[in-house]
Amino acid sequence: MIERQLSVVLAEDSVVLRDGMVELLGARGCRVVATAGTAPELVAAVDEHRPDVAVVDIRMPPTHTDEGIRAAVEIRARIPDVGILVFSQHIETVWASRLLAAGAAGVGYLLKERVARTDEFVEALHRVASGGTALDPEVVTGLMRGGRRGPVDTLTAREREVLELMAQGRSNRSIAASLVVSERAVEKHVAAVFVKFGLHATGTDNRRVKAVLAYLAESG
Hints:
single chain, six-stranded parallel beta sheet
């Protein structure tokens, strides 16, 4: 199946890395409609172009601390239909939790080393632009380490593995392949997670997203 062309706003203050990413994304069928070197430029570009997804470096000028992630949170609050994929050399668990506080749909957080893995990076972009979630495994691990006691602590080791992979935006089939178990076994673990998190089936609620959010809220 041919993936649709994504429109992208790219925020990265390193000109070399920014130019390289523009070339990489263009070669993979994405259309970079604007680039930004500062957080205000990013917000303005998203306001103007309304892209499918904004790719945002967490640390940007002038202080190179959290300007990018603050802008991402602002965009998330004001223009929720724009997907947000943040990337960083560092795991910022507090800001990751804040970014995900309004919902996991359409949000991604990757470490910069993943960008070099072109297939993974572009797949994450499409997932986020389509309303999915793409969380770096190391980010998920970082979020888990800060956990306080709650439903997560009632999970078995296998249920934790399944939930961690759910938080990365994986499907049941993908989880089954990763853990080398049957898809039916994954379904049973997911159902157990729902029960332990008190998430009952309704006609409208997405329990999968709610489980991930509950997990991130408890861990972050």
